Amino acid sequence: AEWKFAVEESPGDVQTLYAEEFKRLIEERTGGKTTVTVYTYGQLGNENDLTELTAGGAIQFSNASPGHLGTFVPEVQVLSLPYLLPESDAAKGKVLSSSPALYDSLAKDFASKGLKLFTVYPEGEMVWTTKKAVRTPEDLSDVKFRVMTSPILIEQFKLYGANPVALPWGEIYSGLQMNVIQAQVNPPFFIESAKFHEVTTHLIYTGDVEYTTTVVANADFWNGLSEQDKTMLNEVREQLQTFILAKQKEKNAAALAKMQKDNPKLTVIRLTDAEREVFRKRVKPLNAKLVEMVGGRSGKILEQLQADVAAASK
Ligand code: 6CS
């Protein structure tokens, strides 16, 4: 068999490293009877296109980050809420790889859209790149801020005082260059890889949220797999969890120094606790807003996820 796996990122990026290691492990375990073809960003379409291709069965696996998947599986937006996941890497990894809120509850909302939730992993803390110093919500009042395409992100950045615009990431670089947008937010490894630090001047560390991504499979494809294949995939999934936690950490740690070398004028701002608190207060209504917007089981999923986080943080 040939399995197609499309990622939302470029060669060498975190999602691509995951997919390539997935390919290596599957081909090794099946002795080459199953091959995996990896497609990077743009080869098959943008983020939203990949989800449609997977749900429709044209491809078997893809990354579907909550930042974009919210237009298709609205409940997944709980993962985009700031100040929700545990700070410690171990607790974060545990919640994302095994939380019942995600794999028992949220997985049902994926299934109803033709998607099997295969795994969730972190890609690093979200950092803003801007064209001026930002320390307060007032500083954002004249900033068109690019966010991913999930509706909750528009609400988040409105609460922060910015003027948010949703775009696929392929439009960020030229948007910043032409000043159609003046800011964007992403983990450090990705900012460096996509060169957003060439067209912005400031990196703002706010400590509000971790970038997470999900890997999904076509549900009919998954349900039609043999028990043996499912067991193999679950073992590969476990193996990859350790692999990707280390990889993303390593890449994010190296990114800042690289960006500063490329662009010596880059100003790095780490908001103080007091400055962070102002944004944190602003965004307090967001959880209730999400439940109001999405309805259905979203409130239950959020409550359960908060309980899973508390349990993992002990
Ligand atoms: O900003 C985005 O849209 C993209 N960011 C990352 C880190 N991965 C893929 C995603 O589409």
Summarize the structure.
With 314 residues, this protein is an alpha/beta fold.
Based on the structure given, which CATH architecture is correct? 3-Layer(aba) Sandwich
Helical percentage = 40-55%
Which strand-content bin applies to the residues?
15-25%
Structural class given helices, strands, pairing? alpha/beta
Low-confidence runs of at least 5 consecutive residues: none
CATH domain class name:
Alpha Beta
Order of helices and strands: EHEHEHHHEEHEHEHEHHEHHH
Global shape:
globular
In CATH, the homologous superfamily goes by the name: Bacterial extracellular solute-binding protein, family 7
What small molecules accompany the polymer chains? ligand 6CS
Count of discrete alpha- or pi-helical segments spanning 4 or more residues: 13
Mean pLDDT: 98
N→C terminal distance:
43 Å
Domain module count: 1
**Radius of gyration from the CA trace?**
19 Å
What does this structure look like?
The protein has 314 residues and is of the alpha/beta class. It has one domain: D-Maltodextrin-Binding Protein, domain 2. The chain is built from 13 helices and nine strands. Strands 1, 2, 3, 4, 5, 6, 7, 8 and 9 form a nine-stranded mixed beta sheet that branches. Helix 1 (14-29) runs antiparallel to helix 10 (227-262), helix 4 crosses helix 13 and helix 5 (100-111) packs antiparallel against helix 13 (298-313). The longest helix is centred in the last third of the chain and has 36 residues, at 227-262. The termini are far apart. The model has no long low-confidence stretch (mean pLDDT 98). Bound molecules: ligand 6CS.
